[in-house]
Amino acid sequence: MHHECKAAYHTAYYNREKKSMGTEKTAKGKNINMLEGNPIQLVMTFSVPLIFGNIFQQLYYITDAVIVGSFIGINALAAVNSCSWITWMLNAIARDFSNTLSILASYSVGEQNEDKLKLIAGNAGTITLGLSLILTAGVLLNLDRLFVLFKVQRDIVQMTGDYFSIVMLGIPFVLIYNTAAALLRAEGNSRITFYAVSSSTVINVALDLLFIVGFQWGVKGGALATVIAQFVQMLIVLIPFLKSSMFTTELRFWKPDVALLGQVVNLWMPMFVNSAVISIGGSFVSSRVNAIGPFFTAGISAGTKIFTLLESVIMAIQTGLSVFMGQNLGAEKAARVRRGVHQITGLALVLSLILNLLIQPAAPQLVKIFLSQENPELYLKTIHVAVAHTRVLTLGMFIMAPMYLYRIAIQTLGHPRYPMYAGFLQLAARVFSVTVLPAVIGEYAYYVATLMAWAVTLPVVVIPYYKYVNQI
Known about the structure:
Blueprint: H1 3-10, H2 23-27, H3 39-72, H4 74-81, H5 84-111, H6 114-140, H7 143-149, H8 157-167, H9 171-186, H10 191-214, H11 218-243, H12 251-254, H13 258-292, H14 294-330, H15 334-368, H16 376-395, H17 397-412, H18 417-435, H19 438-441, H20 444-447, H21 449-469
Helix pairs in contact: 3-4, 3-10, 3-14, 4-8, 4-14, 5-6, 5-9, 5-13, 5-14, 6-9, 8-11, 9-11, 10-11, 13-14, 13-18, 14-15, 14-16, 14-17, 15-16, 15-17, 17-21, 18-21
């Protein structure tokens, strides 16, 4: 293996004597050993539970939007989505941190170093608890400022406050869930994520119906249902994590370790900056969308809900690819890494074609399920926006799918700064799209903003990936 590239993802690791975990152990039970066998079969076997878990979760978001939009109204749908980029950013923090942990832990699985895995798990617990307190307090104390920033319109600001003041209480549950699930995935256990997400989805939908339709609690009921479901989801993943070999109560593993924290920061911070910049761009677009009116906000939201269901398939495969790469990089199987990335990217493009063939003609029927027809004029304007947005985003999958996979690939190789650079290009693309293009292409400027962001990112992650992967 090329010395420099190897150092990029082993820097600051310890030269302690390795304690064998044994490939037999990772192959047992629910864990998948990624070191032998067909890459597509292994990644898909790993990813299928995540795909179904993601689909369950997105079906909840869709059901939640249907219940809110149909039983409370289009304004309520606009209210719960008017600051959706706050939720996106918080989820991105949890996702990027968990991706960092999964990458580092999967290296240790490939290296068969049990002590290192315990150290990662212990330090992850310490960071997660501290981060939970900081983010929860920070967001709740600044909600009014965030509403001003997002230009939430006066007629829905009360409902927006009612919703977000409750739903933000679930931040610690989301962070703990993501941390525990990521560490279990690094060992090859993706089924627990499916169990957690599917169970919480069923609970969430049931409570939505009870609180919103039955008790008539409005958006507060929807927010409370979400927080309860997040708590259950956390418990389902946390219990097996506490029973796993990587978890320990020994304080020496929980005590912040300078070298490991340096490794976490070097990998996580570029991801965080990337997500933060993307969030700023998304927030800018969202404020422009909100300024047009609730019908446009609701239409964009409905289209996004449909597309997010499709996106979740690629995101699950992305997670599987990262674990595959991490374990094989830890075991120094470079040729296997290169072959796996090519095969999985090709598969994702085929899936993108299939999903386009299914969604494009069905878009008008799909978006109708989100919207109340109580106000016919508002309904027609909203459904026009929703259909157009759905179709444009779905076409963008041919850009999004390889971009997501090469982005996680370059991050797993130990070079997260490239996605960070791309994040600034994404910001510029989004701002350009909604400030300059409306005069040229009208409302479609708001629909293509995300596609432009993906397009400028793709070469920034593909080119360096091939540079570094060919050095190992």
